[in-house]
Every structure is written in structure tokens, then in C-alpha cells.
Design a protein that fits this description.
- This protein is mainly α.
- The protein has one domain (30-103).
- The chain has three helices and two strands; from the N terminus they run βααβα.
- The chain has helices spanning 45-53, 59-65, 87-103, and strands at residues 34-37, 80-83.
- It has a two-stranded antiparallel sheet with strand order 1-2.
- Helix 1 packs across helix 2.
- It is elongated.
- The chain starts with 33 loop residues before the first strand and ends with a helix.
Length: 104
């Protein structure tokens, strides 16, 4: 089965063909979230997304859940990384927030 990129910009597309700027969406903490200790030698956000979501293109959700880091290059060794989980709940929240922002 092929892996497809999540079309996270679709909600932000305008009828004139432009796309609104992507806002930062704060992902709330859930009791179902998963956590990993960062190991810079064999860890990347896309690899974590593959491990927990079965798709590397959801790495942006992990980035949004860890706003203290601008990118994986900013993550200190042994930092605790939050993986928002389960995917369906997180995507639903994310899409609702994008829609709310777009309509405001």
C-alpha cells in the first residue's frame, strides 16, 4: 500500500487559488499520548511518526506537540518527546482548529 502525504493545506486553500498561511496549532495533551526519550543518533520526527502513526508524513503533529523545539536539530539528548495519540483524535482536533481559524 503506498504512503500518501496528508493534505494538511487543503483547508487553507482559497477559491482564488491561493493558500492562507499555516497557523501554529497547539496540540493539547491527552492521557493517551505516548512519550519517547530523544536519541539523536537514531531518531527523527518522521521516524517517530512512522512508528506511532504508520506514516512519516504526520511528523508535523509531533512538532506541534513539542513547541519548545523549533526543529529536531533543537532537541537535546534524552529530552522527553510527546507523541500525540491516537492519530484519529489528533487529526480531528487539528482539522477542527484549522477550520475554526479559517472561518474567523
Amino acid at each position: 500500500m503506498p504512503i500518501f502525504d496528508y493534505k494538511r493545506y487543503d483547508i487553507l486553500k482559497n477559491t482564488n487559488g491561493t493558500t492562507d498561511m499555516m497557523p501554529f496549532i497547539k496540540i493539547p495533551e491527552l492521557t493517551t499520548d505516548k512519550y519517547e526519550m530523544w536519541n539523536s543518533y537514531n531518531m527523527r520526527f518522521d521516524k517517530l511518526a512512522q512508528k506511532y502513526y504508520n506514516n512519516p508524513f504526520y511528523d508535523f503533529l509531533i512538532i506541534y506537540a513539542n513547541p519548545q523545539f523549533l526543529s529536531e536539530w533543537d532537541v537535546e539528548e534524552d529530552a522527553l518527546i510527546r507523541i500525540p495519540f491516537p492519530l484519529e483524535t489528533v487529526l480531528n482536533y487539528y482539522e477542527n482548529e484549522l477550520t475554526r481559524i479559517k472561518q474567523s
